[in-house]
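Section 5.1 Outputs to date
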Amino acid sequence: MNDEVSSPPSPIAPDAPYKTVSLALQGGGSHGAFTWGVLDALLDDGRLQLDGISGASAGAMNAAVLGHGFAQHPDDPAAARQAAREALGDFWRKVARLGEASKLQRGWAQMWLSGWRASGASISPYQFNPLDINPLRELLASCVDFKQLAKANSPRIHVCATHVKTGKAEIFSGKRLTEAAVMASACLPMLFRAVEIEGEHYWDGGFSGNPALHPLIYKSQASDIVLIQINPVERNAVPDNESEIMDRVNELTFNASLLTQMRAIDFVNRLIAKGFLPPERYRTVRLHRIDGGEALEAYPASSKSAADGQLIEKLFELGQTCGQRWLKKHYDEVGIASSINISKDYLDDMRMGHPADR
């Protein structure tokens, strides 16, 4: 939020021909197809110009594939959007075909998609997968020209991986945005061996940033961030069986970094609003969210591990619908104000001021 890394732009006029935003893409196995649908709706609408895109795990895959599409037509926004739509469709339909292929390939696809549930696994990938076989690596390579992507500046793609030794989030972008970086962002430690990059080892980015928001603040000009959220923060029912408990534990684990980042953004926004930070050096971050609501939550947790063509298409259609609905309801707020209440949706009672503490 400091202007030394990204100067504060002026608010966007409501009648501007387009509005500039950055996108934050959560991971979530096959539910990443929901994000595909949302992205398709935003690209088809055409009124949002994308500045930066940050993703983790399946979100990193979506970000890289989308960036590949844009890189095909750097000087033609309309053609770039169409190429991005086609690239995303090609990627997810290949994921579906991988799940419908041989039993061995289907097993690998389902394991990647279900990785957030894999913390209960009892066998190390260094034992059951000594050759580090991962068909998704070949699939990704067939869908993304990383050399071309590394040269592209608009939108700027960031993928997050977790440094195994330190637990810190490592952001890969520009020339460091490689096939290995995206595979590291989607490296589920109970299924795949840690990915080595530049002598260091990395696991799934969801552990440290699902997704990472700070590169969108420090490396982008847009003050509006649209979060495409897959994992619910809140559940109404208390899980009472082993599967549901494990699912909720993993949701909490992969949402923890998001909650921390939201607290930090809310804190700085409040300081700016109260005049404690100079507006010429700091900028308010406006946040928006597109999620599937009850419709997405209604899908059983096991569906995140289903490499099924029909499921992926249904999630895509749900994402399209939710994206279109969000544009209709909240587009006019972009560039003006946040369309979510950070305090209500993401902060704990103490931050909000619990009555018992007053």
